[in-house]
Each structure stands twice: as C-alpha cells, then as structure tokens.
Amino acid sequence: MHRSRAVSSSQRRHRFADRLLAKGTLATHPCSSCNSFNVSCTTSNLSDRCEQCSRYNRSCELAAPDTELDRLEKKDQELDEEILQLNKQAFEASAKVLRLKKQKQLIRQRMRALVDREARNIAELEIDELMAEVADSLESPDLTGFSGFSQVSWDDLGRISPVPSGSG
C-alpha cells in the first residue's frame, strides 16, 4: 500500500511564498527584513506579509495598516469588554458580601434576643418556683426548729421556751 507523505508547514509556507512571488508586485519601499538581507521585496494583496517574510515566517511591517489597526482595535474592544465584565462581577460580588454581612448581623441580633428571652424565662421560672415553695411553707408550717424539737417536746422537758430564764 502506497502511503503519501504529509506536507510539512515549511513546505506549505514556501509554496504560498511562491504564489505571492508569482502574483505579487515589487514593493516601492522594501520591508526592513528584505532590506537587511538585500533581497527584493514582493507584496501581494493575498497576504499581509511580503513574499520573503512569508517564506521564512518573519514579521513584516508591510502589513496593511488598516488590517493591523482593525485587529488592534478589535483586541482593544475585547479587553474593554472583559474589564467591564470583571468590574461588573466584582461589583456584584461586593454587593453580595454586604448583603451577607447584613444577614449575618440580623441573625446574631435574633440569637441574642432569643438568649435574652430564654434567660428571662429561666429567671421567671425560678421566681415562680421560689414563690411556690414559700406558699407551700406558709400553708403547712413546719414547727420543728433547727434542733429538730417541736414546742411540744420542750414542754415535756418542763420548760416553756428553749431559752432558759434567769429563775429556773
């Protein structure tokens, strides 16, 4: 089976330069590259570069200024649009950050209010519990003192009060 050999980029560039040479015209002022190599500078409307610069893949200042200007203006516009888009994203991000900070502040305020309310509720419950204990103790007084004896048991010992009087 016969396999065709691929054409290299250099070969394609040389063929294209040959076309430019065949269809082109001699430039009135050669480009700097052609001038430095002291060769004729042939240009064509098929390419922005002269024949020699196309053949050896060099930059050529003979490119039509309109084409280069259009390319640079397009690139400038693309960069402006990208900058605008990034500024818009940055503005939206900063607005979102501010909104999230406000939400966080509100949540913290609500948490503080809930904690304060719970503390008040606990204090009220403690007061209610103490009041209930006091009410219970007033309803059924405990006549046993600190010593554990009641008034009746002091009477059994022959005394009326637990504190001895001077005549006793």
State the shape.
Answer: rod-shaped
Instruction: Summarize model confidence as the mean pLDDT.
Output: 82
End-to-end Cα distance, whole Å, is 144 Å
What order do the strands of the largest sheet run in, or round the barrel if closed?
1-2
Number of helices: 5
Q: Determine the strand fraction and express it as a percent band.
A: under 5%
User: Can you give the helix content as a percent range?
Assistant: 55-70%
- Protein structure class: mainly alpha
Largest sheet: 2 strands, antiparallel
Which parts are unreliable, with pLDDT below 50 for 5 consecutive residues or more? none
Q: What is the tally of beta strands?
A: 2
Instruction: Give the helices and strands as they follow along the chain.
Output: HEHEHHH
What's the gyration radius in Å? Answer: 52 Å
